[in-house]
Design goal:
globular; binds flavin-adenine dinucleotide; 325 residues; binds iron/sulfur cluster
């Protein structure tokens, strides 16, 4: 049985208190929301904070508040709350679907949207216990010097495996980050970085404090997930698609792939030939063929990577057909 190491747990009552605790303890500290990712990682000594700052005692971080044109979701709103929220289900169904496809009912009641967006990247050589990793002399992401997936590589290729991240990018979510030096807001696409180690542009002293999503009247949207089992498993491919039609013609379309790289991969540009035309299966197939060429899954997650690449074509076609036809 894997045990948690000793650590100090702090339970701030306000966001400001949490930010000042994070600033005070510096690189020794991490924040925790549901703990469904951080605590297993600590048990495997992948992440080793000695101070853990819990966010769940801060009530305002749990709220989901819809206004006329947007919805603001607090980062500690659970995935269950997001998946079952009536307005999210009807007005931003791709987000509710993605949240509802994460793992299992138990984990969705503990795990949060903020934790899902900040989820650590994953790799077969990294998501192992300490002794397993030690037996291969570790790897570049933690404690070692080499990448076992691409030994000549100077970067880590661990995979962004969050279900909600590609949806947040497709729906143009804005994220607010707060620290003792103030707050800033950025597009979801700017939040993720294509680097398996340094996978977020969030500074270590910053707390994700709000997730704002514009409502998308008139849009159709979907999230399609590929995984080994129908529940429990992380995505090995996720496709977020959204589109708006006007008078039978495609007016706008967005396409973002998840779990094919260290960050969500926006492919909306490849779907631009659809715009201004009535949608056809033939045109969708040609976009899917282009999108699949760009997907370069590596041999560091579940199932065969060549098959996963082929499935990118199938899933893009399926997602675009759902929102356009
Ligand atoms: C068996 C199993 C299956 C899983 N399957 C899936 C799956 O299918 N899809 C999927 O996407 N995930 C999956 N997960 C991962 C995880 O359960 C979810 O991603 C969950 O949403 C994480 O949220 P959390 O609140 O528990 O995060 P935590 O564990 O609390 O935190 C995760 C990371 O985010 C940081 N963090 C959390 N909140 C904030 C904040 N507000 N500001 C700054 N940093 C923050 C933490 O410091 C930590 O680095 C699975 C986990 C397990 C154990
Ligand atoms: S991609 Fe390479 S460096 Fe990154 S976690 Fe996997 S083996 Fe380690």
């Amino acid at each position: 049985m894997l045990r948690l190491p000793d650590f100090q747990y702090l339970a701030p009552r306000s966001l400001e208190e949490a930010a000042s605790q994070l600033a005070e303890h510096g690189s020794r500290a991490m924040v925790v929301a549901g703990g469904t990712d951080l605590y297993p990682n600590m048990k495997r000594r992948q992440q080793e904070p000695t101070v853990v700052i819990g966010l769940r005692g801060i009530p305002e971080l749990r709220n989901i508040a819809a206004t006329d044109g947007a919805v603001r979701i607090g980062p500690t709103a659970t995935l269950h709350a997001v998946a079952t929220h009536p307005r999210l289900r009807t007005e931003l169904p791709a987000l509710a679907t993605a949240a509802g496809l994460v793992s299992t009912p138990h984990l969705r009641r503990m795990g949060t949207l903020g934790g899902n967006l900040c989820l650590d990247t994953r790799c077969t050589y990294y998501d192992q216990n300490y002794h397993w990793r030690k037996s291969i002399d570790f790897c570049m992401k933690k404690d070692g010097a080499i990448c076992w997936v691409a030994p000549n590589s100077r970067r880590c290729w661990a995979v962004s495996s969050s279900d909600t991240a590609p949806v947040a990018v497709a729906l143009r979510a804005r994220l607010t980050l707060l620290s003792v030096s103030g707050s800033r807001s950025l597009e979801a696409a700017e939040f993720f970085r294509d680097d398996g180690i340094d996978y977020l542009t969030r500074r270590p002293d910053e707390i994700l404090s709000a997730i704002d999503l514009p409502l998308h009247p008139g849009w159709r949207m979907t999230y399609q997930k590929l995984r080994r089992r129908g529940s429990f498993d992380f995505p090995i491919l996720g496709v977020a698609a959204a589109a708006r039609l006007q008078d039978g013609l495609v007016e706008d379309v967005r396409l973002v792939l998840g779990a094919v790289g260290s960050s969500p991969v926006e492919r909306s540009a490849l779907a631009q030939p659809l715009i201004g035309h009535p949608p056809t299966l033939e045109a969708i197939k040609s976009v899917a063929a282009e999108a699949y060429k760009g997907a370069r899954p590596l041999d560091n997650t579940d199932l065969n990577y060549a098959w996963r690449k082929k499935m990118a074509r199938v899933y893009v076609e399926r997602a675009l057909s759902q929102v356009l036809l």
